[in-house]
Design goal:
Length: 182
């Protein structure tokens, strides 16, 4: 990927996560039956950070689950012959609770669809909401985010990378062009 622009730096990401935490609390009227679920990989540290911010506001931390959607993807056969499975860890029942799915980029909506299917295999939540750092458009499914860090209109020839300290060593969001082969 050839980088074109830095869309968000560390402080912008932090402010967006703070705003998302406040919006989650406001919409759900507190923490009652509220659980955050990070979608592997970068959704997990983002969910943990949102939970930390909610704890700083409310004095209580919502439980955080980890969801691996590898086997729910509709493009599984196009991935590597042996896809990497990062694991699911849901230390709570999803039945009759409010789940906030957390991920880094919303693009076609297919990752979110896979996550919803994975959640339904675990039980029947009262509701599922979606918190996303970057909404870049180009939806292929009727899915929208409830909480958005930043809307970034893109072309299909562009790519958005959310880099997170916990996995990448730094926090920033970059826009780039997909490399074209000659």
């Amino acid at each position: 990927m050839k980088e074109k622009a830095v869309l968000m730096d560390e402080s912008m990401i932090d402010r967006a996560l703070s705003r998302i935490a406040h919006e989650i609390l406001e919409r759900n009227k507190g923490l009652d039956k509220l659980y955050l679920v990070g979608i592997q990989r970068r959704g997990v540290p983002l969910a943990e950070r949102i939970a930390d911010k909610i704890e700083a506001i409310e004095g209580h931390r919502p439980p955080v689950g980890i969801l691996d959607i590898t086997f729910y993807r509709d493009d599984l056969s196009m991935l590597a012959e042996h896809p990497v499975v990062n694991g699911t860890d849901m230390p709570f029942s999803v039945n009759d609770v409010k789940i906030v799915l957390v991920d880094d980029v919303l693009y076609t909506g297919r990752t979110c669809r896979a996550a919803i299917e994975a959640i339904f295999d675990l039980g029947r939540p009262q509701m599922i909401q979606l918190a996303i750092m970057i909404d870049r458009g180009h939806r292929e499914l009727p899915i929208r985010a409830d909480y958005i860090g930043k809307n970034v209109p893109t072309s299909r020839s562009e790519i958005v990378h959310v880099r997170i300290k916990e996995q990448d060593g730094l926090d920033h969001v970059v826009l780039g062009d997909l490399e074209q082969e000659d």
